[in-house]
Specification:
- InterPro entries: Isoprenoid_synthase_dom_sf, Polyprenyl_synt, Polyprenyl_synt_CS.
- Pfam families: polyprenyl_synt.
- One of its GO terms (molecular function) is metal ion binding.
- This is Probable farnesyl diphosphate synthase.
- The protein is mostly helical and 316 residues long.
- The chain has a single domain, classed as Farnesyl Diphosphate Synthase (Orthogonal Bundle), CATH 1.10.600.
- Strands 1-2 form a two-stranded antiparallel sheet.
- A hairpin with a 2-residue loop joins strand 1 and strand 2.
């Protein structure tokens, strides 16, 4: 059974946002409107202080740097498609964005991926120092749980379930475990299943958490949540493979361009990786109504990444 129903994102946002928002502002692209709403909420959750410390500046720098806001958008859209017509999923989605930002700060550290740039700007540790970057990441994780704990429009039981979902996504079965496998398993050839598992933990875990949170917010049945969970799992795999293809890493020796990290691309080659990408996209697409908000959003995201009009069918 396909999930979802047709959603007018603009009209939903216009009615669900604060009363000061005018419906005419939603005449732009629905996706841009949704991202703008997410950005506004994040800025409200992290207001600029009169006398900010270096730590507070680093936190705002890490979480407010412009991005696609995929995880909070998935959370809101999935909740809408499951029947929750307000923005009760917005704060849980923003909590996921905080966790995502914290993970990027840690990933970029010299002891991890040693990346000097993030989204075209100096990585947080380059801008504020490694010590402050680590503290900012810890603070973002803490704030994510606090945000869920005070999320409006939800019962205490719902908030507890959301906290459980977030904890699972961050721990050894999610981001932490995926990063460990990425760091310690990158100097040898591995089976495709091992790559898929690492990709799921690093990328797919937060996508799955997004739709699971949406299910809790919308009080959906477990069967409906499971359909979305399968969609999010395939989406996470496709997203990571697309990143590998864009990076262009991989060679005959099975190593990436940095000579250290093995990816699905370096193991299978570009043609094999494209085949896996198409399979995961087809499976994700099969779970959605083509006119629904989730399908529209995912198509827009992949269109941005590939430059193709139909981003759900990238051919690169």
């Amino acid at each position: 059974m396909r999930i979802g129903r047709r959603s007018d994102l603009g009209s939903k946002l216009a009615s669900a946002m604060a009363s000061s928002e005018r419906a005419s502002r939603c005449s732009r692209s629905d996706i841009r409107v949704l991202r703008a709403a997410i950005d506004r909420r994040l800025k409200a959750l992290f207001p600029r202080g009169d006398e900010e410390t270096g730590l507070e500046q680093a936190i705002r720098y890490a979480v407010l740097t412009p991005g696609k806001r995929i995880r909070p958008a998935l959370t809101v859209l999935a909740a809408w498609e499951l029947g929750r017509d307000d923005l009760a999923a917005l704060d849980p989605g923003c909590a996921l964005e905080m966790v995502h930002a914290a993970s990027l700060v840690l990933d970029d550290l010299p002891c991890m991926d040693d990346a000097p740039l993030r989204r075209g700007e100096p990585a947080t540790h380059r801008a504020f120092g490694e010590d402050v970057a680590v503290l900012a990441s810890v603070a973002l994780l803490s704030r994510a749980f606090a945000t869920i704990g005070s999320a409006p429009g939800l019962s205490a039981e719902q908030r507890l379930r959301l906290i459980d979902i977030l904890a699972e996504a961050v721990g050894t079965q999610g981001l932490a475990g995926g990063q460990f496998r990425d760091l310690r398993g990158g100097d040898e050839r591995r089976a495709v299943a091992a790559f898929s598992d690492a990709n799921h933990r690093k990328t797919g875990a937060l996508f799955v958490a997004a739709v699971e949170m949406a299910g809790v917010v919308a009080q959906a049945s477990e069967a409906r949540i499971e359909e979305l969970r399968a969609f999010a799992t395939d989406l996470g795999q496709a997203f990571q493979i697309m990143d590998d293809l864009e990076d262009g890493s991989g060679g005959e020796n099975g190593l990436g361009e940095d000579g250290a990290k093995v990816t699905v691309l370096s193991f299978l080659g570009r043609d094999g990786a494209r085949g896996h990408l198409e399979r995961h996209l087809a499976q994700a697409r099969a779970a959605l109504r083509p006119e629904g908000g989730l399908a529209m959003f995912v198509g827009a995201v992949f269109a941005e990444k590939t430059g193709r009009a139909n981003g759900f069918q990238p051919r690169i």
